[in-house]
């Protein structure tokens, strides 16, 4: 279970582990706001969902989001809280955002990537653990439970490739991740077909 600390306004805020760039613990914990203000490295999870008929989950972020409002996102993502492992963080995010409840054994860890984004007073430095969840999911399985997502649907792989190639400015800027994950998804599809 994640631990909480008080933020400036007196509201509870989840506590996250600050990491060194190599992913090793720095030995301190901070709120999300402090980590993003200070530009500290921290761990996040990104879960790509491969659904029925080799479709991929695509979400449109809410206009109310601080980071990347209204942009398309090709994964379910979230921060790893204090005392939480990455598999548990994946399951938490899938349930919180979409009401999907897979088993942890269904998650396939693909790779880890360091990602940095700076804009105004935000300095986001993430060590992203990227996972693939494969299942017979369809649009009917999705129940948006979060005000963070405006819309979600499964799209054919080819349409997702076109979205990346022709509309990259409409996506959360994670270009390096997109290429690596699409290769892994194509491999997973080929293994299923074999």
Automatic annotation (TrEMBL):
State the PROSITE patterns in the record. NUDIX (PS51462)
Q: Which EC main class describes this enzyme?
A: isomerase
Annotated Gene Ontology cellular component terms: cytoplasm
From what superkingdom does this record's organism come? Bacteria
Name the InterPro entries on file: NUDIX_hydrolase-like_dom_sf, NUDIX_hydrolase_dom
The EC number(s) attached to this protein equal 5.3.3.2
Q: Where is the Nudix hydrolase domain?
A: 40-177
| GO MF annotation terms | isopentenyl-diphosphate delta-isomerase activity
Biological-process GO terms, alphabetical: isopentenyl diphosphate biosynthetic process
Keywords tagged on the record: Isomerase
Please name the Pfam families in this protein's record.
Answer: NUDIX (PF00293)
Protein name per Swiss-Prot or TrEMBL = Isopentenyl-diphosphate Delta-isomerase
Native species = candidate division WS6 bacterium OLB20
- Gene symbol here is idi_3
């Amino acid at each position: 279970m994640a631990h909480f600390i008080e933020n400036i306004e007196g509201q509870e805020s989840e506590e996250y582990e600050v990491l060194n760039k190599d992913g090793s613990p720095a030995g301190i914990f901070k709120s999300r706001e402090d980590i993003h203000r200070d530009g500290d490295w921290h761990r996040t999870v990104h879960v790509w969902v491969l659904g029925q008929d080799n479709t991929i989950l695509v979400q449109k972020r809410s206009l109310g989001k601080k980071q990347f409002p209204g942009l398309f996102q090709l994964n379910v993502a979230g921060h790893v809280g204090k005392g939480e492992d990455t598999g548990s963080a994946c399951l938490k995010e899938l349930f919180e955002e979409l009401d999907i409840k897979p088993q942890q054994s269904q998650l396939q860890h693909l790779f880890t990537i360091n990602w940095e984004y700076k804009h105004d007073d935000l300095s986001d430095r993430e060590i992203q653990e990227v996972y693939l969840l494969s299942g017979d999911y369809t649009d009917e399985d999705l129940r948006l439970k979060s005000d963070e997502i405006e819309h979600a649907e499964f799209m054919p792989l080819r349409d997702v490739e076109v979205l990346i190639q022709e509309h990259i400015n409409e996506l959360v800027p994670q270009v390096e991740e997109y290429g690596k994950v699409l290769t892994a998804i194509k491999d997973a599809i080929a293994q299923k077909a074999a």
